[in-house]
Amino acid sequence: MPTMIDERRSYVAGDWVDGEEILAVENPADESRVAEIAATPLAEIERAIRQARRCFDSGVWADAPPSERIVAIHAFLDHIEAARAALVATMVAEAGQPTMFAERSQFLGGLAIARATIDLYSSMPHEEYNPVPLDEATRGRVAVSIRRFEPVGVVSAITPYNAALIMALQKIVPALLAGNSVVLRPSPSTPISSLLLGAAAEAAGLPRGVFSVVVEAGAAGAELLTTHPEVDMVSFTGSTGVGARILAQAAPTVKRVALELGGKSAQIYLDDAVTHVAAGAAAVIAGTAGQACVAATRMLVPNERKDEVLEMVSKTYAAMRVGAPTEPGTTIGPVISADARARCERFVALAVDEGAVVVRGGGRPVGFDRGYYFEPTVLDAPDNANPAAREEIFGPVLTVLGYRDIDDAVAIANDSRYGLSAQVYSADPAAGTAIARRLRTGAVNVNTALFSAYAPSGGYKHSGIGRERGTDGIRAFQEVKHLVVGELR
């Protein structure tokens, strides 16, 4: 097995920092201790913020030509790319992700998104003329009206455990390209892979203070990063409950807040597309064990085809291989912790109490005495009021719901406090698109999917504020300044 990343210290404003408090990182596949990390002292997190502020205000990074920042970020990514084997081994061990997912989706996918983000940023204007009606331009002394895009300032980036590398790159690359200073705080469950980003910043020669990586076992540091008056923006991916607390913490200092939060996405199958449900069901849990905010865990099918669908998806889940992430052929690894597995168990029980039927799975797989494994589970729910259809379980649990007609399907899909994504399947793309336009979600995939640096991601309702990726994801880390210029008369 490849050697893991061996760094155990935080990277604070150009310095490698030890700490007395120890953060023990557990392997969810076998409950062994992966490593002991020196948690960043709170005073050092404070220093990371203050040094980020000084670095930003000095202009050494923020005022550098965009071309210089682009060269530095390419070098940053080159260092990450060179650590492929160690980084993949680390993500497998700390997150319990199958090797194929860690390598293809996180490592290769993350770097591809990051490098394409550089290309996108390069194509975007840093200043652009602002159209003004002719009578306004000629009535006074206005010669030109310009919109100028400038960095926000100091950014706190707080990332989740389920896709630590790619989520970090989605935040820090556009933020740094735009000229911001960034303090990254990864999930306490999966901090080791993020420590490599500190080494990458050092190797790329980023100015001291422009980037820091801090780790902690609790939430005191995260709270400092969301309340400190010298932080200008918080970018967070995680649960809706924590996101709501971050909004409250950021409010007194009127920070900009970008949130990508929970989801309870629906996948809708028209009658002419029911034969495709097996692939849709597999996509919910393959690689991530259902630990993805965009996972379409509500499957909506015509009432008269529901029994047929339940049989098909149950056979699909029965064929998926649950196992150690390092074993070839493993499709589904463990969930992240004992608490996460208990949440799956609790929601299956609540669903059954409210009339759902467990068609497949529903508990811990036989033969797994260690590790936080949960069976791929199919629930036949009586309606959308069932707990399994209302709450984000964040595990390998699919809820199948029947609908009467298209209007009913749209109503069921929209009947959720979440609105992160959705899927529509139909042999008639035009019919699928018509349904997609009626869904209250940040993204809708019709018969296909796209995960690209050029396409935005984000949610409606309780699923978040703002967008990541795409031009919107870059502009999220920028302020818009209006310049009006005229002759002095």
From TrEMBL:
Q: Which UniProt keywords apply?
A: Oxidoreductase
Q: Species lineage, top-down?
A: Bacteria, Bacillati, Actinomycetota, Actinomycetes, Mycobacteriales
Q: Give the domain of life.
A: Bacteria
Tell me yes or no: is Cytoplasm among this UniProt entry's keywords. Answer: no
The record ties this protein, via PROSITE patterns, to:
ALDEHYDE_DEHYDR_CYS, ALDEHYDE_DEHYDR_GLU
Listed name of the protein: aldehyde dehydrogenase (NAD(+))
This enzyme catalyses:
an aldehyde + NAD(+) + H2O = a carboxylate + NADH + 2 H(+)
Its EC number is 1.2.1.3
* One family name in Pfam for this protein: Aldedh
The record's InterPro entries line, in alphabetical order, gives:
Ald_DH/histidinol_DH, Ald_DH_C, Ald_DH_CS_CYS, Ald_DH_CS_GLU, Ald_DH_N, Aldehyde_DH_dom
Residue stretches making up the Aldehyde dehydrogenase domain: 16-482
Q: Which family does it belong to?
A: Belongs to the aldehyde dehydrogenase family.
What is a single molecular function from GO for this protein?
aldehyde dehydrogenase (NAD+) activity
SUPFAM superfamilies with a match to the protein in the record? ALDH-like
Please name the catalytic residues of this protein.
260
